[in-house]
Amino acid sequence: MASWLKLSLVCLSIVTLDVGAGILAIKAEKAQSQEANPCEAKSKTLAYKLGLGAAILMLVAFIITDTFTNRHRFRQQSEPARKPASMRVASVTYVLAWAIFILGIALMGAAASTGDPKRRLPCSFSKHHLLAIGGVLCFIEAVVCVTYHLAANTGDKNS
């Protein structure tokens, strides 16, 4: 019973953090679109602060997923045809979670950095809705990470 409680708490924390990151990223996009010219800001803008907060929440959710997931079961069998379906799902979602995480962090970091006067990327980054896309990736990451966590920690215990 304690393992189900742990699974539930980890999944709930992943979803909460990723949804919070997605909401922050979308609010950052809205704040960035309301600024007169984000490229001429002398101090860190609200969009920069919200985007950085979203990236940090996404990072924490990914760390929780990676820390509390049972990965030793991946290495038990070397032949992919003999792996149970839950392990194949876990393998695919593991790679997908890493890809979404890297892409989301890169998009939010690039878009938010237009609001930091010390680290300027070209202003064109603020016109492509990268923060909103990063926010949507946060929501997708929540689903993929929960699927990965459940698939790796449940399934056929006899194999």
Describe this structure in words.
- It contains four helices and no strands.
- With 159 residues, it is mainly alpha-helical.
- The chain has one domain.
- Its main location: membrane.
- The chain crosses the membrane at residues 49-68, 89-110, 130-151.
- Belongs to the DESIGUAL family.
- Residues 1-20 form the signal peptide.
- Our count of helices gives 4
Q: Determine the strand fraction and express it as a percent band.
A: under 5%
- Quote the distance from N terminus to C terminus: 21 Å
Categorize the overall geometry: elongated
- Oligomeric status of the shown chains? single chain
State the order of secondary-structure elements, H for helix, E for strand. Answer: HHHH
Major beta-sheet overview = none
The residue ranges in which pLDDT falls below 50 over 5 or more consecutive positions are none
The total count of strands amounts to 0
Arithmetic mean pLDDT: 82
**DSSP helix fraction:** 55-70%
Cα-atom Rg, whole angstroms? Answer: 18 Å
Structural class: mainly alpha
Whole-number count of domains: 1
Q: Quick summary of this structure?
A:
The protein is mostly helical. The chain is built from 4 helices and no strands. The chain has helices at residues 2-34, 46-67, 85-112, 130-153.
Question: Helix and strand layout, with pairings?
Answer:
Elements (H helix, E strand, L loop, with lengths): L1 H33 L11 H22 L17 H28 L17 H24 L6
Helix pairs in contact: 1-2, 1-4, 2-3, 2-4, 3-4
